């Protein structure tokens, strides 16, 4: 058997397709770090296997889910050894394919990312007075950005926040010049 998928053979002891589905879903939820002892123990009891076999099952499931999510799902069938039970292999492929879209979305959301710009508002304002002068006429730009913070989980709503700032003419010119350079670099990449 292929070394990475050998632990999946323990799923033969699962009582139903629903149980296999639930096990793979739980493994995906805990895909980072060491296998949680609660998951390992519950697999041990549910499938009547040893602790090392439970850990092996979790690691094999993580491997195959990782290939499905991050690489290429058609490649999955080739990961199983030729002597792996065909019925179990087909069941695993069916369950993984049924969750693939959800798991890919979850994986994307869990990646580190920066806030996304949702809306930009601006207006030109003229300051007419200050503490030191009774009259002045200084143009400024007031900018309001609405940004969406990255989601922490697939099931949590994203958080939107507003950022307000003021810019003088010189700072605005510097910013426009910088944005022009960014635009030129992006155009060169196409």
UniProtKB/TrEMBL annotation:
Name the domain of life this protein comes from: Eukaryota
Q: Which PROSITE patterns match?
A: COMM
Q: Which Pfam families match?
A: COMM_domain (PF07258)
By what name is this protein known? COMM domain-containing protein 9-like
Query: Locate the COMM domain: which residues?
Result: 116-190
Function summary: Scaffold protein in the commander complex that is essential for endosomal recycling of transmembrane cargos; the commander complex is composed of the CCC subcomplex and the retriever subcomplex.
Which species? Planoprotostelium fungivorum
Q: Which InterPro entries match?
A: COMM (IPR017920), COMMD9 (IPR037360)
